[in-house]
């Protein structure tokens, strides 16, 4: 058997590739950011051609670091930013237009129309709240506004996919046009009960089924890499998962009642509800988790559009820090937030607020406010959003969350993890491996080819690095949450025209 599995985490701002062994130890890794485009206020775009080039470059770097031959890889798993659109010419293999990123809000008015027209029924069928994140309305927008794509579809030359579909198609040398249920479930196009594309939504948005990828499980062999693409080797591509479901899998939250949060560009909170499909309610949606053949699990999910991206903005936008880890250092120079709250609604607010018209707000500023207070508020805003989402999930599910497993870049901050435990009122567990999104994809790929033997083996591999216990009383917790909610209220509906 080959020695390793390779996980590709194609995120929103960068690409991570990690090589794991059979005990889920990290053998080698590499990372690179790629270009972000902001052509209009509220618009966010990527170049899918650049993304693929970065994936190949970072994959080679990860292999070369430790002298790993491509033939030493038993399987490849791919996890990705969900809901971002890619249209490509199936003859030339080139992406035809900018990819509209999940954060983009250009479809806000169309989402409002769908809510008014058939909102409750759509949410019941698709399990999704109708928000601008969803790929379905983005597909419609591109078909209406890009003549090259529209004519290509009419000629039968254009395919659509989320980023997972694009990468599998490219790596396999055009052999597989597929997606999995965890990715398709977030498009607003999947009927979460029948696990097929929802004909009503396809008709409503004018999307031909012919351009959509084949629906598959998260753990199965889709195709082998084309040696011409993957450094001369033919390797099974056998795992696909949306980044948040993949992180849940990598965290070992494989059983009903377990919960995780990933602090990435945004924050994404999932509660495993087992076989219980809840449908979308309020600002929380119910989606398919990572699947193996014949086994379906659902989860309740909440999201914050901006989490770690708030720290990135302090660095790139305000210039008050040079590196991300400076944020915690500055935060620790002050005793508390000084009454400063940061609502990072750069592209609206996710669950449980579901307000695409909110905008970023820093409130409570006085003459005594320093960079330390702003940095502390930026870290705290991650935890406030997570707490609000989980409170909503508890109410919808009737399940009390008793512990939270965390991962992603933000989880590396001791201060933020402790504040999360304080504000949520439950222990927060940080694992030894915080790159659980990539690990989940590697697990799924390895399970499909027998590299990993069972789901229980995956669960048993999880190891805790540090546990953060709540250290504040209920009165202080409510005082802090009250300040946050008042700040959110002031940021809400900011650009909505009367």
Total count of helical runs of at least 4 residues:
15
Tell me the β content: 15-25%
Count of extended strands: 23
- Molecular shape: globular
As residue ranges, the low-confidence spans are none
User: Whole-Å distance between the termini?
Assistant: 64 Å
| Largest sheet, strands/sense/barrel | 7 strands, mixed
Mean pLDDT: 93
Lateral arrangement of strands in the main beta sheet = 17-18-16-15-21-22-23
**Alpha carbon gyration radius:** 21 Å
Question: Which structural class do you get from the secondary structure elements?
Answer: alpha+beta
- In helices, the fraction of residues equals 25-40%
Structure in words:
It is a single chain. By secondary structure, the chain is an alpha+beta fold. Helix content is 36%, strand content 22%. It has 15 helices and 23 strands. A 7-stranded mixed β-sheet has the order 17-18-16-15-21-22-23, with helices on both faces. The model has no long low-confidence stretch (mean pLDDT 93).
């Amino acid at each position: 058997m080959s020695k390793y599995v390779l996980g590709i985490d194609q995120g929103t701002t960068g690409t991570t590739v990690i090589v794991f062994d059979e005990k889920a130890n990290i053998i080698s890794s590499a990372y690179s950011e790629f270009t972000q485009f902001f052509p209009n206020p509220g618009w966010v775009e990527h170049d899918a051609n650049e993304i693929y080039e970065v994936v190949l470059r970072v994959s080679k770097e990860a292999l070369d670091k430790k002298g790993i031959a491509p033939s030493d890889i038993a399987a490849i798993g791919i996890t990705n930013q969900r809901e971002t659109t890619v249209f490509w010419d199936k003859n030339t293999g080139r992406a035809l237009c900018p990819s509209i990123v999940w954060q983009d809000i250009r479809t806000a008015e169309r989402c409002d129309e769908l809510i008014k027209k058939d909102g409750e029924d759509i949410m019941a069928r698709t399990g999704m709240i109708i928000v601008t994140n969803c790929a379905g309305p983005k597909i419609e927008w591109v078909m209406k506004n890009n003549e090259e794509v529209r004519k290509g579809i009419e000629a039968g030359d254009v395919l659509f996919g989320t980023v997972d579909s694009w990468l599998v198609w490219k790596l396999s040398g055009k052999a597989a046009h597929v997606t999995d249920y965890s990715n398709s479930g977030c498009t607003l196009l999947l009927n979460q009960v029948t696990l097929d594309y929802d004909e009503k939504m396809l008709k409503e948005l004018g999307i031909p089924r012919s351009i959509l990828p084949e629906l598959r499980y998260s753990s199965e062999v889709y195709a082998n890499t084309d040696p011409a693409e993957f450094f001369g080797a033919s390797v099974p591509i056998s795992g696909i998962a949306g980044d948040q479901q993949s992180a849940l899998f990598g965290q070992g939250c494989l059983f009903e009642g377990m919960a995780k949060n990933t602090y990435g560009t945004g924050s994404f909170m999932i509660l495993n509800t087992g076989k219980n499909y809840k449908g979308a309610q309020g600002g929380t949606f119910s989606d398919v988790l990572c699947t193996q053949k014949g086994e379906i699990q659902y989860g309740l999910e909440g999201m914050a559009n901006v989490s770690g991206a708030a720290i990135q903005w302090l660095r790139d936008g305000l210039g008050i820090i040079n590196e991300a880890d400076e944020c915690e250092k500055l935060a620790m120079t002050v005793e508390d937030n000084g009454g400063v709250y940061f609502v990072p609604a750069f592209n609206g607010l996710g669950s449980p607020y579901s307000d695409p018209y909110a905008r970023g707000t820093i409130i409570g500023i006085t003459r005594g406010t320093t960079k330390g207070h702003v940095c502390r508020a930026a870290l705290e805003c991650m935890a406030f959003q997570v707490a609000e989402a989980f409170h909503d999930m508890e109410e919808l599910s009737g399940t009390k969350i008793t512990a939270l497993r965390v991962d992603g870049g933000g989880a590396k901050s001791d201060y933020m993890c402790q504040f999360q435990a304080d504000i949520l009122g439950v222990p927060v567990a940080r694992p030894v491996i915080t790159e659980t999104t990539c690990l989940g994809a590697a697990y799924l790929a390895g399970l499909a080819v027998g590299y990993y033997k069972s789901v229980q083996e995956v669960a048993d591999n999880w190891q805790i690095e540090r546990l953060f216990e709540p250290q504040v009383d209920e009165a202080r917790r409510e005082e802090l949450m009250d300040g946050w909610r008042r700040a959110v209220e002031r940021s809400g509906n900011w650009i909505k025209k009367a």
